[in-house]
Amino acid sequence: MNKEEFQAFKERLAARTAEHPDLIGLVFLGSASDSSRQDRWSDHDFFLISKEGLQQHFREDLSWLPEGFNIELGFQDTDHGVQVISDTGHLLEFAVFSEDELYRYARVNAYSLMVDKGNLAEILRHCAREQVPQEKDLRHHVGKVLTCSIISMGRYARGERASGREVFLNGVLRSFIYMYKNLPIVEGQPKHHRMDNLDVFRRIETTHPDLGKLLDEFEGMPVPRALQRVLEIQLQRCGHLPWYPKAAHLAVQDRLQDALKIYI
To answer: Which InterPro entries does its entry note (predicted)?
Structure first.
């Protein structure tokens, strides 16, 4: 979709929501809420708020979507969320909540409330509250880098390379990125205004270009070598902290040497 088509879809969906007696509200998220961030790759992310007890109905019956949006695939991919692909390949990602579920489960940063027939504005202020990273969060993620490194290297070394790389990406790297981005904030430095507080992988190349270059390097490395670099950098950045578990770090490095001997 171009920008005009993108905005027109939002307006048609808002009109359908406003006129439906069982729908309470519509909230667009991320780039769908901010025209300055939209491009040809943007999809429509949103929350649809229904009356209590009707959430599952609206997840399964998609007739409330605007006319002219031709669905080729639609399925529920989480407890609350649905993904839909149109005949042009355009993607919708949305969750259907009641007001109570929105309050209890949703977290948002950039959002635009287009329809509110209830108390959604106040609920969304609660959902958008900023959670400032704390030392305890850093300790958790530093520890996860070390424990997931053991799991990743072990699987890779026994020949389970795909599984070892999956643990590296979703365990080691996720926590490493959190540490890299948030340690300066905990130490008192300002947060980059484009930094995403919900997904550590988003906009790294904009907010932390040095980290983006590191991640590009990791892509071409065997997992044990990438783990070696991750551990080296984590020690460089965190080793000065009085709580950093240096003995555990060195123990993990020693185990990694066996994997390096086998595969490097």
So the answer is: NT_sf (IPR043519)
Say yes or no: 145 and 78 in one domain. Answer: no
DSSP assignment of 109-135: SSEEEEEESSSHHHHHHHHT------H
- Together in a domain, 172 and 214: yes
pLDDT in tens, 196-241: 777 888 889 999 999 999 999 999 899 999 999 999 999 999 999 9
User: What whole-number distance in Å separates Cα of residue 175 and Cα of residue 29?
Assistant: 25
146: left (phi over 0), alpha (psi -120 to 50) or beta: alpha
- The span from the CA of 215 to the CA of 222, in Å, is 13
Domain that holds residue 222: 135-263
Same domain, 67 and 115: yes
For residue 156 the two structure tokens come to 């890779």
Residues 6+ apart with CB under 8 A from 210: none
Q: What is the pLDDT of residues 229-240, one digit of tens each?
A: 999 999 999 999
Q: Say whether both 139 and 257 belong to one domain.
A: yes
192 and 248 belong to one structural domain: yes
pTM listed for this prediction? 0.79
State which amino acid sits at residue 160: E
Query: End-to-end distance of the chain based on CA atoms, in angstroms?
Result: 46
Number of domains composing the chain: 2
